[in-house]
């Protein structure tokens, strides 16, 4: 187990915000996770459970305990299951699954973060979400120290949502996640510009690796490297609106992009609305909007968490004023 006091979290959040916590703890196996659960029960300090910090915006020092999983390892089991330690890097597991001939994760290539966070956030991209793959989640219940196996259905997954973000917040230390994959590759190509990029390469029937490579290229072309310019990827969730509201807006904005959710709802890209409001490439102090993807807020250098929140608030006001649509941060703001 790793324990550090008065510890800087700068390397544990991809915005690169330099704030400290009173204590940092990383568990590396189930036994240590149980010990950490006991520590949290006995302590009067608040605590924060993090992953790689790729979906985290820290606005101040945290006067409490920050907990992170360092559990590694993965296995392929009967029924085309892949069970991964919660501390594994998500994208490493995508690559591993393809190399082993297990498919389903390809569209989620290059999403930052770790395996545990995939179960909390219900990460998603290019028409696929983690909930489409998750079978169950192994966790230690903090209140009792007992091991729990939480089936997919009880996690109540929705768009970028799960019970881990709401009534289960700070109730579990996730240790492993089980994904249901397939030995037969069935590509999902009809979201975003995947098919267009494949056609540009002259690929009509991509392999899983070709699809992964293409998605990585698409993401690299429009998303900044957090090692160079601090960011947390997509800062806002794409809003889901009623079909009636969508049709009113579509009549005003010809060619407005949208994605069908169901018979009564449509999803409108938040990045498109932010771009229409003129924010792409603009800055507010040391915080800015990425010049190739308006959905991404960036640390131009030395920005505080409060500066990034101020930028977020200004963008949300403008989108609401112009489109009558509320957009909400996907990032966890502390």
UniProtKB/TrEMBL annotation:
Predominant location: cytoplasm
Main function: Cell wall formation.
A single BP term in Gene Ontology: cell wall organization
Class of this enzyme: oxidoreductase
Pathway involvement of the protein, from the record: Cell wall biogenesis; peptidoglycan biosynthesis
Protein name listed in UniProt: UDP-N-acetylenolpyruvoylglucosamine reductase
Organism: Prevotella aff. ruminicola Tc2-24
GO CC, any one term: cytosol
Pfam families in UniProt: FAD_binding_4, MurB_C
One Gene Ontology term of the molecular function aspect: UDP-N-acetylmuramate dehydrogenase activity
Higher taxonomy: Bacteria, Pseudomonadati, Bacteroidota, Bacteroidia, Bacteroidales
Domain of life of the source: Bacteria
Membrane found in the keyword field: no
Annotated gene: murB
Keyword Membrane: no
EC number: 1.3.1.98
Cofactor: FAD
Record-linked SUPFAM superfamilies: FAD-binding/transporter-associated domain-like, Uridine diphospho-N-Acetylenolpyruvylglucosamine reductase, MurB, C-terminal domain
């Amino acid at each position: 187990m790793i324990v550090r006091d008065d510890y800087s979290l700068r390397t544990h959040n991809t915005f690169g915000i330099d704030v400290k916590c009173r204590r940092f703890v990383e568990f590396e196996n189930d036994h240590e996770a149980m010990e950490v659960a006991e520590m949290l029960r006995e302590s009067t300090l608040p605590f924060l459970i993090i992953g790689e910090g790729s979906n985290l915006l820290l606005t101040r020092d945290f006067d409490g305990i920050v907990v992170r999983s360092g559990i590694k390892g993965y296995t392929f089991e009967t029924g085309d299951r892949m069970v991964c330690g919660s501390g594994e890097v998500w994208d490493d597991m995508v690559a591993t699954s393809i190399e082993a001939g297990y498919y389903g994760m390809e569209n989620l290539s290059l999403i930052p973060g770790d395996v545990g966070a995939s179960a909390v956030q219900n990460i998603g991209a290019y028409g696929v979400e983690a909930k489409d793959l998750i079978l169950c989640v192994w966790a230690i219940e903090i209140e009792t120290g007992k091991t729990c196996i939480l089936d997919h259905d009880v996690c109540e997954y929705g768009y970028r949502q799960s019970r881990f973000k709401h009534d289960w917040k700070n109730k579990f230390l996730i240790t492993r996640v089980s994904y249901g994959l397939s030995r037969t590759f069935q590509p999902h190509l009809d979201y975003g510009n995947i098919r267009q990029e494949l056609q540009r390469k002259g690929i009509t029937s991509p392999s899983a690796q070709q699809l992964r490579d293409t998605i990585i290229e698409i993401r690299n072309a429009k998303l900044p490297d957090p090692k160079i310019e601090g960011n947390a990827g997509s800062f806002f969730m794409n809003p889901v609106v009623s079909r009636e509201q969508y049709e009113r807006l579509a009549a005003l904005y010809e060619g407005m992009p949208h994605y069908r959710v169901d018979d009564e709802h449509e999803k409108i890209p938040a990045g498109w609305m932010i771009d229409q409001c003129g924010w792409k490439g603009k800055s507010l102090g040391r915080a800015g909007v990425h010049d190739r993807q308006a959905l991404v807020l960036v640390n131009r250098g030395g920005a505080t968490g409060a500066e990034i929140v101020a930028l977020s608030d200004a963008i949300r006001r403008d989108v609401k004023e112009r489109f009558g649509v509320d957009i909400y941060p996907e990032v966890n703001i502390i």
